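A protein record pairs a chain with a discrete description of its three-dimensional fold. The following entry can be read in just this way:
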Amino acid sequence: MGEATYVNIPGVSTHELPPLLVRGVPDGTLPREQLVELATGIVDSEDMLAEDLSAESAEECKLNLAIHLADQYFRLLSHWQWGDSILEWIRQCEITFDAHDMLRPLLKKDLWPHAGRSSFVDLLVEKSIQTKGVGLEKAVGMRLTFRQPPPIECFSNQFLFYLNSPLADTAYQTWSHMGAGAAAHFPPSRFHFEIHDLAIQ
């Protein structure tokens, strides 16, 4: 993390944090075939195909674009689910900190350096957890942007691409800088927690 400032934790013991429970695709998500069918409707409604294509080529291009849009949507769902899991984990961590005299002061803003909620995300990054390609900051930003993952019908093709670039990152950066001044980091060697991928259990 470069020139990161870490909070000072007395002693040398390692503190156990609650497990991070990462859920799979949200309940109610349509099967992939149906998502591709809905994405085909988006391709049709937005005139994404060149007019000079033959009927056969147009159908092939339409299917390829629909599959690509469905993939973008699944990527959105994956990030959202990770972000939702992380925010719930942060809430559990805050309860854990509040229950321990040594950890409770670390979250107080009248102390410097103090940790903020984004410090928990930084801890996950510094622990180099396996995310299967999900960017942690973008995941939290996606969850901050949407309370619930919206259905694919809500999206235009351009907005799906936009979601995968600046929007979630901007949401995270705004959230992580809401406190007065930069929050400090948790020293990763002083904390231990497990990660359970509920999607594969």
Remarks:
- Residues 25-200 form one domain.
- Residues 39 and 66 are 5 Å apart (CA to CA).
- The chain has a mean pLDDT of 85.
